[in-house]
Amino acid sequence: MCSQMFLECLGRFMCGISVGATTVAVPLYASEVSSDMLRGRTGVFLDFMLCAGILYGYVARTVLLGVRQFCLACTAVPIMFVVLFSYMPESPVYLYNVGRYEQAASELRWLRGRRFNVKNEFDKIETSKCHDDELFERGGNMSAENKKFLTRVTVISFGLVLVQRMSGAGGVIQYSSTLFKISGSTIDPNTACIIVGTFQLIASGVSFLFIDKVGRRTLLLISSAIITACLVLLVAYFSLIENSE
Predict the structure, then answer these.
(1) Half-sphere exposure of 84 (CA within 13 A, CB side)
(2) From 26, 95, 134, 243, which residue has the greatest number of CB atoms within 10 Å?
(3) For residue range 6-41, what is the model confidence (pLDDT) as tens digits?
(4) Contact 204, 51 (CB under 8 A)
């Protein structure tokens, strides 16, 4: 029993590290290999694929029998990713920043075609690098204006992540099957979870299509308002069920 608990905790720990690293590395890599026209959409692509993975988990849990088969089906996805991603190029931005200019040019041509103007892209990377360096003065000291700027950016970034994680949407997704059982719905809980996962994937796809047309801030406000309304309705529904018993 203790060994099983240890293996489960170890597995959860490793999954947590992997997911945490993925959520940092994937958007960064996607933005650095994308063109200016596609950079906004590639930033949303991680969330879209997370929704696709949740739906895949719902379907696999319904179709397969037993936890072992389910875990094997989920393990097949990262194995395929490792095999396929080993053929992908390194980030041209990273290569340029470490001084490997020829390899950076080669990777850019691999990504965007042999006739791509590498010099213009290098100029953009150098300009961005200079802007980052300007945030720090000589000796590594930061000016008061730059400190204020970085403080605002940090607070906004952490605030967005905090609101996303504390909204309760993740808990609803993880316990959706249990919630459907408690609700007394006539639909099979596994089928209901697949329906929820499908709508979640569609909503993420809509944001993927409109991120550059509507704007980031507008989509954040709309999605936050919808999440709030859904959670309020969920709380009200289960409150009515508890009071009626």
Answers:
(1) 6
(2) 95
(3) 887 888 888 888 888 888 888 888 888 877 777 767
(4) yes
